[in-house]
Write a structure and sequence with these properties.
By secondary structure, the protein is an alpha+beta fold. It has 2 domains: about 40 residues, GTP cyclohydrolase I, N-terminal domain (GTP Cyclohydrolase I, Chain A, domain 1, Orthogonal Bundle), CATH 1.10.286; about 130 residues, GTP Cyclohydrolase I, domain 2 (2-Layer Sandwich), CATH 3.30.1130. The protein contains 8 helices and 7 strands, in the order H-H-H-E-E-E-E-H-E-H-E-H-E-H-H. A 5-stranded mixed β-sheet has the order 5-2-3-6-7, sandwiched between helices. The protein has a two-stranded antiparallel ribbon with strand order 1-4. Helix 1 packs across helix 2 and helix 4 packs across helix 5. The termini are far apart. It binds zinc ion.
């Protein structure tokens, strides 16, 4: 599990590195507060997406299932700053589906880690392929990165879009377009 003592010691060093007085009133509890927060926002490291996908329901027709506008908050591993936005998931069942809330759950499992948006998108798609074995999966993630907005090139509001396709979605452009129309 997360080592809160190490985080607290690290935050104290960061504050001293900035040139702060770690004993002033506003900062006295900051290391402990950040350690508690990290336990929450990096809690996905200690969760397995498979546990959320173990309960399945049988279906007769294999029509595309879409869950869109799943809001997520993640943390970029290059700057340890937030990136956040929406994930859209589509899949074509092969006789089985999972509860819709589980799709949002697995987004959280992977978002609550140090991440890259490209990797987050692929991990969601692969977790579905590996655990549900549908005929195909498509995942689209749209996000704003604070490391682009508040520093560096400073372009607030710009959205990074990543798309990952697996199975039937990888080779069928018409199917992809159907998904894009539905999530727009
Ligand atoms: Zn970054």
């Amino acid at each position: 599990m997360i080592n809160k003592e190490k985080i607290q010691a690290g935050v104290k060093l960061l504050l001293e590195g900035i040139g702060e007085d770690i004993h002033r009133e506003g900062l006295i509890e900051t290391p402990e507060r950040i350690a508690r927060m990290y336990e929450e926002i990096f809690g996905g490291m200690y969760e397995d997406a498979a546990t959320h996908l173990s309960k399945r329901f049988h279906v007769k027709n294999n029509e595309m299932v879409i869950e869109k506008d799943i809001v997520f908050y993640s943390t970029c591993e290059h700057h340890m700053l937030p990136f956040y936005g929406k994930a859209h998931i589509g899949y074509i069942p092969d006789g089985e589906v999972v509860g819709l809330s589980k799709l949002a759950r697995i987004v959280d499992v992977f978002a609550k880690r140090l991440q890259l948006q490209e990797q987050l998108t692929a991990q969601i798609a692969d977790a579905l392929m590996d655990n549900l074995a549908p005929k195909g999966v498509i995942v689209m993630v749209e996000a704003e990165h604070m490391c682009m907005s508040m520093r560096g090139i400073k372009k607030p509001g710009s959205q990074t879009v990543t798309i990952v396709t697996r199975g039937e979605f990888a080779k069928d452009e018409a199917l992809q377009n159907k998904f894009f129309q539905m999530v727009k």
